[in-house]
Design goal:
Cro/C1-type_HTH, single chain, 434 Repressor (Amino-terminal Domain)
């Protein structure tokens, strides 16, 4: 009998799977790899790659690890979860807002010596 994995997983575990998928998608974007290319390198269909990134709990862990290896060779699951990959750190720095605004008149007067 086929069982839907999303029905048997607790909410917390389902969120963890979704988080893992989001991290893989961010890593792929950070390394400028197309989803279809990563899937091809991992020996998966593009639909399976899509399901991995969306956090489908019914996929085998081996597929997830092959997908990770295809995106970032040598990267471990632990370093992905810690977000210590240099590409992820660089992406986070690029995404952070660097808004620069002019000083108000009061702030300029405060700086006047």
């Amino acid at each position: 009998m086929k069982v839907r994995q999303s029905a048997v997983l607790s909410t917390h575990l389902a969120q963890e799977v979704v988080h893992l998928g989001q991290l893989l998608a961010r890593l792929r974007h950070a390394r400028h790899v197309k989803q279809a290319d990563a899937a091809l390198r991992a020996g998966l269909s593009r639909n399976t790659a899509y399901r991995i990134e969306k956090g489908d709990p019914g996929l085998a862990i081996g597929q997830v690890l092959r997908y990770l290896e295809a995106i970032a060779p040598g990267t471990t699951l632990t370093s992905l979860l810690l977000e210590s990959d240099p590409a992820l750190v660089s992406l986070q720095a690029r995404e952070s807002t660097k808004r620069v605004r002019d000083l108000s008149a009061a702030e300029l007067d405060g700086l006047n010596f």
